[in-house]
């Protein structure tokens, strides 16, 4: 039995956390939920581009079966 997380997730986040093999932790780091050392060297605009990349990947994966 899995415990429900104490923090609420968006439906998109739930979809990916329940997906096996998806690098969910890494994507959450990129979303700013915890510090990712590789992002510290990026400028704000680079971080934004990286985040958009991830969101694009997610929406593409969500739309495919």
Provide an overview of this structure.
By secondary structure, the chain is mostly helical. The protein has a domain at 24-30 and 41-65. 58% of the residues lie in helices and 0% in strands. The mean pLDDT is 65.
Which regions contain 5 or more consecutive residues with pLDDT less than 50? Answer: none
Mean pLDDT: 65
Alpha-beta classification: mainly alpha
Tell me about the biggest sheet?
Answer: none
Q: Count of helical segments?
A: 4
Q: Can you tag this structure with a few keywords?
A:
single chain, mainly alpha, YhfG, 65 residues
Short summary:
The chain contains four helices and no strands.
Describe the secondary-structure layout.
Elements: H1 11-17, H2 24-30, H3 37-40, H4 44-63
């Amino acid at each position: 039995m899995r415990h429900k997380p104490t923090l609420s997730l968006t439906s998109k986040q739930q979809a990916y956390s329940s997906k096996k093999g998806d690098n969910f932790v890494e994507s959450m780091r990129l979303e700013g939920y915890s510090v990712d050392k590789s992002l510290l060297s990026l400028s704000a605009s680079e971080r934004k581009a990286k985040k958009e990349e991830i969101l694009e990947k997610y929406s593409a994966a969500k739309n495919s079966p």
